[in-house]
Structures are given as structure tokens and as C-alpha cells.
Amino acid sequence: MKRFLVRRAATALAVVVALSALCFALLDLAPGSPAASVLEARSGGRPPSAADVARLEREMGLDDPLPVRYGRWVADAVRGDFGVSYGSGRPVSEIIAETAPWTALLTAVAMVFSVAGAIAVGLAAALTRRAWARRAIETALFALGGMPGFVTALLLLWIFAAWLQVLPSGGLNRPGEPITAGVLIPHLILPALALSFGHHFGTYARLVQTGVGRLRGAPHVANARARGLARRTVTARHLLRPGLVPFAARLGVGVGGLIAGAYATEMIFSWPGVGRQTILAAQKEDYPVLAALVLVAGVVVVAANLLGDLAVAWLDPRVRLSGAAPGSPPGGTPGSPPGGGVPETAATPSGPVSSGKAADALH
Amino acid sequence: MSDALKIEDLTVAVPGRTVVDGLSLAVAPGRVVALVGPSGSGKSLTARSVLRLHDPEHRVTVTGRILIGGTDVLALGRRALREVRGRRVGYAFQDAAASLNPTVTVGRHFTETVRAHDAGDPRELGAAALQRCGLEAGQVWDARPYELSGGQAQRVALALATVLEPDLLIADEVTTALDPVTQAEVLDTVRAQAAERGRAVLLITHDLAVAGRWADEVAVLSGGRIVEQGPSAEVLAAPRAAFTRELVAAARLDTALEAPAEVPDGGPLLETRDVRRVLRGKGRVTRALDGVDFAVRPGESVAVVGRSGSGKSTLVGVLAALDRPDAGQVVAAGRDVWGLRDRERRELRRGSGLVFQDALASFDPRYTVGKVVAEALGRRASKGTDVGELLERVGLDPAMADRRPASLSGGERQRVALARALAAGPRVLIADEPTTGLDVLAQERVLALLAELRRDTGLAIVFVTHDLRVARRIADRAVVLAAGRIAEELPVTALAGARHPETRALLAATPAMATGVQ
Amino acid sequence: MPSTDRLTTSPTTDTGAPASGDGAPGKTVAGARPGFYALRLPVRRPGVWAVAAVLALLALAALCAPLLTPYDPLATNTDATGLPPGSPGHPLGTDLLGHDLLARLLYGARTSLLVGLIAAVITVLAGVLLGGLAAAGPRWLDGLVARVADVLLSLPMLIVVTALAALLGRSLGTVVLAVAVTSWMPVALVARAELISQRERLYVRAAHALGLSRGQVLVRHLLPGALPPIASIAAFEVGHAILTESTLSFFGLGIPPNRPSWGNLLTEAQAHLLTGEWYTVAFPAACIVVTILAVNVLASAVASGEGRAW
Question: Is residue A353 within 8 Å of A308, Cβ to Cβ?
Fold first, then answer.
């Protein structure tokens, strides 16, 4: 178990380092001088003189060697100082503090939708004895798996905001208007649904279905029945607990997928969160904001992955031995579940935890 | 005394087929009754019917009466059925390790069982049950199923099935995957419990010899009906039904098959000299072979005998020039195999045919039978007739060439493997437990084929097995392996008088059909 | 210890359950028949054929775009703005600037499919190469590839792609690069795992025992065995690449706006969704969904030897 933890943590650390390097590169290699951008922002758009730029560059330490600049940037970032936005001249940390709660709220609600819905639908598909019902659910999930997140969002937007006109299309953050629960909840429903359906719902449900479905005839379930256990115990402990391991293994990754998915969702529903801010910063080439938001989002995702791995290790202790997530289900039934639009065949060194990550992050 | 289990006119059908057809059977308290039959005869379906354990998905229909101490199980409601399960009837499954939930500890299995029936202190009952099965609770209570050895897992499963002291224990092929010594220990335990605690035992097995040694009564199942039933000694000594006679004959593997009149002279075909091989698994290193000197001479048949983990399969890999030993020499036809160039070594490999225990896995799943054999023929596969001839040689219909191995029976697959092994015209055949998964009838046919091949072509055979009966039947000489070393080497005729403790242990564990020993 | 599969299979058969009884051997033949057979299998599956036909049709339409529409996708016509679908001369209508939507859709297909294909080809080639090297090469290389892939997989890809795109500027090359950099890992890991697992199969050992050379074993047994999963994931990569392109373009970070792509069309049209011009969104969105779905169907058909949903 200890070795498993150490390995996971080491990978996570490597990811964070790689990510910070990428973000720093973003700042450092970006065209144009940050000093000029800052001066321009301060003076309200007037192009600064070359002398002013040079002086500020020296002050900001932009002529120091690369490792020094990187080290300073990391040290500042750790203290929460990400510099100043080129666009607005405000400290980046302020922008993060403003947007992060919105994204946290949105992803949390979407996660609840995803988990509850996927378990319900997945179990229905796994436990039904009607072949046509299973087929119907499988087909729907497959179709959902092929829908890009933003298409799902646009579809929901069109149905509920344009056609039925029962829910607002966005514009939550109007200046001067206090945000009460009565305002928030209608605004939250569509983005959260879009985020949930567009990102992972199908994959989750498929994981529940295949994980539980293939344990139904497993010897240990028959054994549990043969010992006269209550139906509830058999289902909960012997069918669901081992059967939900692959699903639980993906939850950590799912957080990453949701955060990535929040980019498109927030853009479409003008949700004032980190994702929208990131895209706007990328479009406006506001590199300090972009770098900081990418780093923060990345660190959150990595942390979620790590927590997910821990959860799996707790649920299925076999991973502690091998250091890998369980590739085969308890009961040893062979065969891998074909994923709903996500390649599940990836029998990777770190198991299914990482197999569909790349695809997830984008769906 | 009334019967613990009484099955009356049981019929079990799956969609499209009646598998069990009018079966009646009774098991009295304290008696062990074996239900014996080949694969597909319906014995496991019968056993599962007793607790109505069929997967609803499979739409199994069960009719007739199954009485547990007078209560008809088939008529019970869900709640009443649950009280029978575990409390009055214990069920031990074939694959013990898979029949335990890998995500919870062994102790948890006991706790939930005891609690489900409100039967007392789980730890106390569980420890007692484990003790009866020869395990210390302290060793396994907190372990998880995958951390147990095969024998331990089976004992845990047995203890779990008997923790509430049921009147009836159903042991469904519980020892099929175990080596003979462990099998004997486990079945001795089952028998002892029947005797001491007056428990009825229904022993499901495909091995008539196992039934003969550990059961009081034998019921022989064929085609969904019981064709013969009676005290095991009687049934084995004087089988009445034709099918039983066939089974008994096949299981009575004590006489040697006809050997060639003369064994050609010559130096060893294959030889290992002080071979050592270390296997490095996850975090553990095992000395699979620890200084083995072994030789096969032309035309002779050698049995390599040992229990699981004795290094038998490692020796096969080394003999076949597939695995390089860490130390020592492998000499084939007078040449040091690992001193040769790759091309020459490959040529040498063609001089020995290899047959695996799992024949199906040894075929490329994309290949037909014909392609499997043709590949081994190599350049000689100019005409389709060659493949046909080889198939006929091993007693298969040449028309089978178009089939896929997966659609064949176990015995047929093993014949295809033999045909492939013979394709290059080897002088020695290395067979790694080729009959272990087969039922006795299929096993007997494969053994007879091997003996015939040896007689006709002077083929030398290295036959790896854990079954001394098979060794006696097929080989002239037995090499007993234990912990990577050769424990003893002796003619098979001298096996009965062997001195070495390992050989004696294997011998003691082997159910002897000849004498019908109980 | 040799596998105990035989031991467990024969008595399992005895449980007589229809799925594991007589049906089992036959099912194995038809269902789990990987290899080149898998690539042949669609013959008997009309659904898969239909899906392939749809993809071919889309590709053909993209290729022949100039023949199918007289309009320049970039040309605006102030006399014909905001026409609904079915308008004379403009079967799919025009947008508020007077672009002909059919022309934009067809030319957009060129870009989207091209990017998807190029990116997928690069991804798969790089992935198979790296995976093959990891499987066959020295141990340190294996470790290196696995580690790097693991690290990259842990990064939220869209975030990385966004950063990359912002850094490199909008161009077709950027999109291709961003996709390739962020998606070779699953291919490499699948290729590696498949080759390694094939190598450890008993039938590969049996082939060696027949005296076949490494090359023969590779060509006859390893590659055919490893191919279907790799082909499957390659197909998924095409869909994935198209998805990434459209997502990036939708964010205004992908293909430059002067070149129509399905993602670009959606960005422009997004604002019209609520004002009644739903069709400006519906057509490009439908194209994206249909393409990705079709590719996914093919991919899972190859993966499992049977259509998942059909």
C-alpha cells in the first residue's frame, strides 16, 4: 500500500512539475513583452516608450537567466502571486478567487448528476432481464458518448431556452443584481445537466453496467446466495462493491473531465467560472491569467486523480499489491467492456484509471 | 434414520434441452454419496438445483421434489429458502478462490454468514469451522481470498460452507484444481466431518477413483439419468451398467499400456546437466529448478511426476529449448543447445514435439485446425493431404481441418495439439499434463493414442503429470520432482515400493482403483 | 505454473448453463475471433456497412465540394442574408452575413476531416512506434515510455491543448500538433500492452516450440493478434481528433476563422441559436455528431468483432 501511494504521489508530482513548466513557457515564450503589456494596461492603452519598457523589464527581472525566472515564478505561484492581468491590470489571484467558486459549484452539481444518474441507468441496464431494455440503454449511451460536450450543451440550450423557454440561457452575473437561490438554481440547471451529460455520463453508466453485469453469474455471488445471505447483502456487498470498482476508479479522472468540460459549458452558458475566464484569456492572449488558470485547474485535476486512486485502493485491495488498478473484475471473467465512445481496450500499466483519460478530457 | 437429502424425479431443463431427466437420489446423515459423471452429464446442475442457485438469466427450469429433511426446497418461498441455504445445506464450489469475494476479508465472509442466520458469535463459530478444516483462524481471518494458496482457499470455502453445521454439505468438484496431495487432505477432512458430525455429503466429481476412495456410495450419471447406484466398493468392483464399465475401465489406470517390444539403443536424445532456473515474479524469487540431471533415450517413455510448484513445467520449457537455464547445460542430440546459433537451435526445436495442458490456448485463435497443423509442417505442407494424414494419424476426421479448435471437445483439441507436435517428425514428444483437464474417458483415449504412436514410430515420450496412475500407465520410468530437485528416479513398476517421502506422499494421495481401497 | 483454465472450463461446462454449456465453444468462435477476421466481419453486419457508407459519403462530399456547390464559402452576399433552409439557390439557407451554409458545410468538412485524418495518422504512427519500442526494446525504454505516457495522461488534455493553441497561434498545424501531442499515449499503451500480452500467450510459445523464427512469430501471430485493438483505437483517434478540432475552433483557438471548419461554423452560429436561426447550429453540429458516432461504431465493431450498439 505504501509503495502504491508513493508511486502515485510521485507521478502526481511529476505532472505538476510538467504543468508548471508548460505554464511558465506560456508566459516566457509568448510574443510581446509582458512589461509593455503591463505599461499599456496601466496607462489605459497608450503605447509605452521603449525606455519605460526596458526599465520595467529590469525591475521585473525579465533579463535574468531562465532558471532564475522559472524559480521566481514558481515561488510566487506557491505564495499565490500569479502576477497581474495584461488585460485588466488586476492581480491574477483576485480573478482566480472570483471565478473558482463558480466552477466548483458547477462541477460539483454536475458530478452529483453524473454519479446518481449513471448508477441508476447503469444498474438498470445491468440488472434488467429484458434484452430490449438493455439494448435501448446501451444504444442511447453509445450515442451520448459520441456527442461532443458543447454539442450536448447547445442542444439543451436550444430545447430549454429557445424552444420551451423554461430556463434561462445564461447571464447569471449581472452587475448590481444580488444572486439569490431563486436566481441561481434556474441558471444552474442547464449548465450542470449539459456538463454531466456531455462529459462522462455515458462512460460512467457503461462502467456501472459492465462492472456489475459481468459479476452477476460470478461464483462468489452464487456462493453468497448459497450461504443464505439476505438479497440486500448479496447485492450490496457481493455484486455492487466489487462491481463498482471500475466506475469508482474513473471518478477521480472524471473530475478532470468535468473541469475540462466546464470550459465549453461555461462559454456557452456565460457562466462566470474559471473555464470561461481561461478561454477568454487565451483568446485575448492574456498570458499571466491563462498560465495561472491552467496551472490551478491542472493541480486540482491531478489532486482529484490521486484521490480517485486512493479510493480504488480502498475498494479493491488487490491494486495495492500490483500498484495497478484492477484490470480484471473480481470473479475473473475475461473480456474487456467496450466503452461508450471511449476506447476501453487500453490495458495500460496503470490500468483502466488512465486508459480513457485523454479521450475523457475532451468529451 | 430419514435422509438428509432426498431427490425425487428431478428434471432440469435449459431452453431447448433437458439436461437432467428424472433423477432420484438419497443421502443419509453421516454418509458420503458421490455423484459421478463426465463433463456435461448434468451433475453440477443437479447440485445447484438443491439450493436453487441457477442464474435467472439462464432460464433453468427445475421440476420434481428435492427434500431437505422432509422440506421440499422447490416449494419454498424466498425467506424460507434463505434459511435452508447456509444453515441446513452448505455448498462448496469448484473454484474456491473465485467463490470468495476478493474485496472483503475471509473473516467478513464468516461474519456475514453467521449474522444472516443469527446463529451466535461469528468469530467463535468461524474459528471452530476453520479448525475443523485444518486452518488456524489467526492465519486467515484477516486475509483476503486472493492472498490464500489454492489449498487454503478450498479449506476456507469448506469451512465457510460448514460454519453453521449444516445437515448436508454439497461439495461441487471441490478438488478438481488441486494437486493430489492437497486433494487427499481436503477430501479426508470432508469425510472426517461426515463421520464425526453425522453430516450428509453430496460429493460431485468427474473422477470415479475419487468417488471410490472417499465416498460410501456412488451414483453414476449419464445423459441426465442415474445409470447405476450402489456402495462404491461394489460399483467399482463389479459395474453393471455398460457406461459404468467403460468409466471404471478408463479410471483403472494401473496396468501399463503395451510398450514397444524393444527399445532402440543410443545415447540420450535430450539431456539436462545440473540445470538451474530461477523464476523472478513480483517481489519473490523461486528456484524452480535446482540442479536437475535428466535424460531421455530413444524410444523410452519417462514420466515426470510432482505436485504443483515442483518445477515440472519449468523443466518442460528447458527441455524444449525454449527457456534458457540460469546454470547448467541442455544437450540435444549431443550438442549444447545454448551454445548454438539461433538458427540451429530453432532446427533442434523441430526435433521435439511439445504438447501443453491447455491445448486451446496453445492454438492461435485465428487459426483453423488445418492451419494449426499446416504451420507445423512448414515447408512440407505442400499438399493438403499431409494435414489430413496427420489428423487421421491422431484419430481425427480430416474434415475437421476447417473447424476452429474452440469448437472441439477437450480430447479432440489435445489430439490436434498432438498432430501439430508430430508434424515435424520429432524423435521425442514432450507432453506437459496433456490429460489433466480431461475426463477419464477422454484421458484414456489420449493415453492409448500416445502408446500406439510410441509403439509404431519409436517416439520417445516425456510425460509430465501429477497423477501416478497416469504415470504408471504410460511410462517405463518415473522421475519424481520436489522443490526443483529430483527426489527419486525409478521404474514405474517399483513405484509401489518407493522409499522417498515425496513419492510416498504422492502415492498415498492417489486413489487406487485396482484394490478399491477405501 | 501452467494455466488451470482447462481444469476450470470443463466442469463449468457441466453446470449446463446454456451460456457456458454447449453454446460456449461456438460463441467463442463467432464472437471473440480477433485478427484479420475481425476486419472481415462487417460483411454480415449491415449496420456497420451503413455506417461506413455514411463516412464514405461525407468524405466524398468534402472532396467534391466545388462540384456540389457554386458558392465560395467565404463570399458574402448582402442580398441573401438569413435565408432559412429550402430557399431557392440556397438549400441549407444562408447566415446573417449571406454566406451559403451548404458551401460552408462542405468546405468545412474538408478542413475537419483532413485535420482529423492527419492528426489521427500521426498519432497512431507515433503511438504504435513508441508502444512497439517499449514492448520490444530495452527495459529502460519501456519504463520511460510508460512513465511519460502516464504523466501526460494525468494532465487534463483540453487544458494542455488550450495552452498550446494559445502559445502557437491559430493554424491547422497547431491543431494537428496539439492533437498528436496529447493523444499518442493511449495508442502507445494499447500497442505495448497488446504486444506484450500476445508475446506471453501460450500459442506464441507453441509457435516458438515449432522452431519458427522471431520474425515469423511476429508476422504470423503477434501482429495479427495485436492489430484489432490497435485498429480500434486508431479509429477512435480519428473521432477524437475531429472532436478536438471542433472544440478548439469552437473556442476560437483552432482553425483560423477565414477557413471554414465545422467547429468554426458553430462558433459563429452559436449566438443565433436563441434568435431563431437554429439551423446555422444544427447542420454543423449534426455533421460533427454523425461523423464521430460513425467512427465510434466502426471502432467498436473492430474492437469487439461485433457492433456494440447494432
Answer: yes
CB contact under 8 A, B350 and C210: yes
Question: Average pLDDT over chain B, rounded to whole?
Answer: 85
Tell me the per-residue pLDDT of A129-171, one tens digit each, with 9 for 90 and over.
788 888 888 888 888 877 888 888 888 888 888 788 878 877 6
Please give the average per-residue pLDDT across B394-401, as a whole number: 87
What residues of chain B lie within 8 A of the CB of C221, using their CB?
Answer: 364
User: Which chain B residues contact residue C33 at CB under 8 A?
Assistant: 365-366, 404
Chain C window 226-265: which residues touch A at a Cβ cutoff of 8 Å?
229, 232-233, 236, 239-240, 243-244, 246-247, 250-253
* Closest-CA distance of chain A to residue B162, Å: 10
Element (H, E) at B296: strand B285-296
The per-residue pLDDT for range C139-151, each reduced to its tens digit, is 888 888 887 887 7
Residue A20 has pLDDT above 80, yes or no: yes
* Helices C101-136, C139-154: inter-axial angle, 10-degree rounding: 140
CATH 1.10.3720.10 describes domain C46-62+98-309: yes
Of A21-35, A68-82, B104-118, B219-233, the range with the lowest mean pLDDT is A21-35
Task: Residue C268: list chain A partners with CB under 8 A.
Answer: none
pLDDT tens by residue, B5-62: 999 999 998 888 888 888 999 999 999 999 988 777 888 889 999 999 887 777 888 9
Distance from CA of C143 to the nearest CA of A (A): 10
Cβ contacts of B437 on chain C, cutoff 8 Å = 5-7, 9-10
Position B282 confidence tier, pLDDT thresholds 50, 70, 90: low
Highest mean pLDDT among B160-174, B328-342, B396-410, C88-102: B160-174
Q: How does DSSP classify residue B496?
A: G
Domain residue extents for chain C: 46-62+98-309
A282–C17 CB contact, under 8 Å: no
- Whether chain A has a CB inside 8 Å of the CB on B51: the answer is yes
pTM, entire model: 0.71
Q: Tell me how far apart the alpha carbons of residues A215 and A332 are, in angstroms, rounded to a whole number.
A: 9
**Backbone phi, then psi, for B63, in 5-degree steps?**
-130, 165
Q: What pLDDT is recorded for position B464?
A: 92
Under 8 Å CB pairs connecting chains A and C tally to 213
- Residue B228 CA to its chain's centroid (Å): 24
Query: Average pLDDT of chain C?
Result: 74
CA proximity to B191, closest of B214, B217, B163: B214
Distance CA A82, CA A64 (A): 18
Q: What is the pLDDT of residue B85?
A: 93
Sequence letter at residue B148:
L
ipTM of this predicted structure: 0.72
Percentage of chain C modeled with pLDDT above 90? 1
Q: Is B112 on the interface with A (CB under 8 A)?
A: yes
Which among A356, A363, A240, A362 has a CA at the least distance from the CA of A305? A356
- With 50 as the cut, is the pLDDT of residue A353 above it? no
**Partner A, chain B 137-166, Cβ-Cβ below 8 Å:** 144, 146, 157, 160-161
